[in-house]
Amino acid sequence: MSEICTAGTEAKRDCQVTVTRAKSIEIKIDTTNRNLLVAGIRAVVEETVAALGVKGARVDVVDSGALDYVVSARVEAALRMAIHELEVEPLAVKRNPTARDRLRRTRLYAPGNNPRLLVGIELHNADCVLLDLEDSVPPAEKYAARILVKHLLAALRFPEVWVRINPLDTYGRDDLAEVLRAQPHGVCLPKAEFAASINELDEELTRLEGEYGIPQGSTHIMPIIETAKGLLHCEGVAAANKRVVILAFGAEDFTRDLGAKRTQESLLFARSMIVASAKASEVQASDTVYPNVEDEEGLIAEARLARDLGFDGKGVINPRQIEPIHAVFSPSEQEIEQARRIVAAAEEAETQGIGAIAIGGKMIDRPVLKRAQRTLKLAGLIEKGGAQ
Amino acid sequence: MKNTLGREVPESLGKRELRPFKGAFATTPAGRKAARPQKTVRPGENKVISSLEEAIAATGLSDGMTISFHHSFRQGDKVVNQVVDACARMGIKDLRIFPTALFPVHEPLIEHIKSGVISRIEGSMNGPVGAFVSEGGKLKQPAVLRSHGGRWRTVEAGDVKIDVAFIAASQADSYGNATGIKGKTPCGPILFSAVDAMYADKTVVVTNDLAPYPVFPFEIQQGWTDYVVTVDEIGDPESIASGTLRITRSPTRLRIARFAAAAVKASGYFKDGFNFQGGAGGISLAATKFVGEEMEKAGIVGGFAMGGGTRLLVDILRGGLVHTVLDGQAFDLAAIDSLREDQNHVLMDPGHYANYDSRGCATYMLDAAFLGATEVDLDFNVNVNTHSDGLLLHGIGGHQDVAAGAKMTVITVPTLRGRLPVITDRVTTVTTPGEVVDVIVTERGIAINPNREDLSERFRAAGLPVRELEAIKQEADELIRPLRKPVFGDEVIALIEWRDGTVIDTVRRVTRWK
Hints:
The structure holds 2 protein chains of 2 kinds. By secondary structure, chain A is an alpha/beta fold. Chain A has helices spanning 34-51, 68-82, 115-118, 142-155, 168-179, 195-212, 228-232, 234-239, 251-258, 264-280, 296-309, 322-329, 333-351, 366-385, and strands at 4-7, 15-20, 25-30, 57-63, 106-111, 128-132, 161-164, 186-189, 220-225, 246-249, 284-287, 313-316, 357-359, 362-364.
């Protein structure tokens, strides 16, 4: 055992756990409202220690209002830093795989090592939540972050939850090995540049799915295109593997890579290229985040542009951006009504055995019908999800 | 004896017989109001005294008597401590203090309780004094907590007889007219003390700004005032905003506020002439802001908004979204400036806004109100007084009065505060009964009191996330292990009065944990 290992901080909603050498299990807990809380925290600590099979350690917990999953994560991180040879089991998670073409109007980013900012992250009606282990987590915190994300995945329920791992040539493989133990719906690969790296990720996922008893092939991939190289290869990236269900755009890194300034014009080529590549492989496309949280008008304008270009959704950095984006990417009453008419006409044509579909003398071709069906499907999904 | 909420309450407090709570509007007062002794002041008589000690001596204050204060300076108050210190120096003991509320700044009173200068407290306790009293055995009699309206009522009814009222006034004249919205250190309205001034045997105005006659508005009137004392300092107006007045930035809390505003919009009350109470807590403040935005969008002009006055309500008034703001107290300096300058921003005393034993309350004219809670339970009962560990830490404020009056009372709470659950099976202390609570809004959904089926239909039609309170509770409880529970003994620390003077609950001393 190493001498002293610490995980977590004394920030609000976190807890700091320090593990030191001891012959038996000794647990010391410091918290506000001692009388009310100590027993519950102790139970969580004891269970975590037992699950890891640790027989001797002194565990000091300084709690600042952490939820149970945060306590578990911090205890596990500190113990594993201290005792390297511990056996770690997958967590008991029951997650139903999600459909390839489900509603993905928003992907909400959440920093993977900040318990305070993770509170209530499951509640904001984002179509996808992305727990981030990459840019928002400094290297020294990656270890604790992936364990926190794992416990969060097991504790909370989401319509669809993803983990943004680090690139495979940095911390990505360790991220995968950890978070797959709690079976996210998908994995988001930043700075995707080649079909080969998607397939590499696929192999790793297949191996881990086998090891952890996850249905083979059920974990989705979301490549993020955010470099010049990635953009030039994005057709291949989208087509690389059937796990890829959505292609995302990251404009911040992209403009930096190009030495470009972020304007609607400077991003137009990349956006169009990404949408075309995605659609060619029957994959969804999700636009970049809008960084100015205060500017709702700008957000809506950019979301409309993305929608008109063919994107299915957009990234979100603050929950208050969700509602405006959902409004933009949800079909309007008129669109739904028009789609109903088209689909009804198609059914009518089919029962009558007529090849051509027409409404009011105007011919409807196949892509229009397909789009109408998609509109109705979205409308149905939105209604079911109680979207706000 | 047990009241109708099943809470065990004592039959008497000292010599005063107590009545158990029977229902929000169950009691009917009888008899006549109490009154102070007659007195006349002839032309030319002087009321000004230059030290607190002399004033105390002049009032004849002695052992066992009752003194009262207001809390308009909130955390910035300097009068309560000065007066009690002076009493202690003069050897007076066994006092009952009857403040509208105490704040953490009044922590020095703990020493006076220990030394016997203070032996009873009837009034709200926010912070250390409440925690100290909760430990038990320190006061001769349980403390009594009342709402704003309940306190006014109890004085008029003679349940509490005030011997000497000490009233901090940021400006007063030598004849005893006084106000809190003018002077060197304005603290906002001091009308909470109007009932003290009218009913106390002796009324002493304490000011640091003696101005030429007449000082107005006549919040405290010359005809009520026995003495005017000048002191160097009465309080720090910068501290009246006790830290509660920032609109929350937490996405979870903003979500609650948005739900609350959407609930108001869908309630059926949201139309021209709509009257509402704005809160001062982070969530209520945000909800009030969002309601204002919705009014603007919908082109609705409200009737009146009710404070605690805040900059936000001032903006709503100036923006033409309401005709009138009614304020009994001010929570920031912008509200005080507005009260002085804008004739549609109106001072209001607690008798006018909240007194059960009266011929009408402003709260009864409210359509919607946002209120907070430390705990709520599955019967929609609300606790604002104690924490889950049984410590007495907060006053009632206007909670009962507003909840009882508003057509739709909305409690805005997160389901968890850190590891502490807010929704419980049974609140530690009942402050406000579930029968007057219509809606509980959390970040996990909106629960509607079963007696408001009408609201349920409207909310569902508007697409709001209406859920059973129990389902919301269960979802939050899954994130934390159950807490240990305090076991309460027989010793009663405090009585919680309902606004009609009946006892709705008691706070008891914690004996052990299970």
